[in-house]
Amino acid sequence: GSTIANSAAYENQKDNSHIAIGGGFGCVITGSTAYGNEGEGIRASRDSIIAGNAVRGNSAGINGGDGSRIIGNTASENDGNGIFGGTDSTISDNVVRANGLWGIKAAGGSTIADNMISGNNLNEAEDTGGLDVSGNSHVISNTLAGNHETGISAAAGSTLRDNHVTDVSAVNGVSRCFD
Questions:
Q1: Nearest-angstrom CA–CA distance, 158 and 33
Q2: Residue range 30-85, pLDDT digits in tens
Q3: Span 148-163, mean pLDDT?
Q4: Sign of the C-alpha dihedral, residues 56, 78, 72, 173?
Q5: Which letter does DSSP use for residue 66 in this model?
Q6: Are 54 and 78 in contact (CB under 8 A)?
Q7: pLDDT-derived band of residue 170, with 50, 70 and 90 as boundaries?
Q8: CA 129 → CA 37, 52, 148, distances in Å?
Q9: What does the mean pLDDT of the chain come to?
Q10: What's the pLDDT band for 13 if we cut at 50, 70, 90?
Q11: Rounded to whole angstroms, how far apart are CA atoms 82 and 37?
């Protein structure tokens, strides 16, 4: 795959289908910044590495395909989700704050660990909040604070361990698991 390093995309105003910084299968996107774009800040296909980037004020933050590793990024003030990871992704060591919908949303079989997730779901959408994972995922040692509606939402077969969730302003409480 290709490598995109130390690049920037600012205030591209095409439409919501636009991708500010994008890479194909097995790409590496690192040290880059996407700010104020209509559409996704960063998007990469499956088995990619998205590391050490900053996305802010885009329609959506970071979108990694199946099997991607999304590590050490900052995703803030995006209108939609801060970070989305496809099936079997690893999402770790990110700072995710003040996004419009979920801070982090991941498909099944993913590992979400050691992230700081705060103040998400600014749109106050129902059933949205800090962290949402599909079945058979592992949610380990994340810190969540001040997310509206839901702290952690995890589907059947998921493992939640050593997470710290505070100040959830919702009826759903600290965390919930569902089938």
A1: 32
A2: 999 999 999 999 999 999 999 999 999 999 999 999 999 999 999 999 999 999 99
A3: 92
A4: positive
A5: T
A6: no
A7: low
A8: 23, 24, 5
A9: 91
A10: confident
A11: 14
Give the helix ranges, DSSP H, for 38-136: none
Lookup: tokens for 76: 């803030």
The identity of residue 24, as a single letter, is G
- Read off the tokens for 146: 């001040």
* Rounded Cα gap, residues 115 and 134, in angstroms: 17
What six digits make up the tokens of 149?
Answer: 């509606």
Edge-to-edge strand ranges of the sheet holding 19-23: 19-23, 40-44, 60-64, 83-85, 104-106, 129-133, 150-155, 175-178
For the record, the structure tokens of 9 come out as 């995309």
Other CB atoms within a 10 A radius of the CB of residue 15 amount to 9
Please report which confidence band the pLDDT of residue 21 belongs to, taking 50, 70 and 90 as the band edges. very high
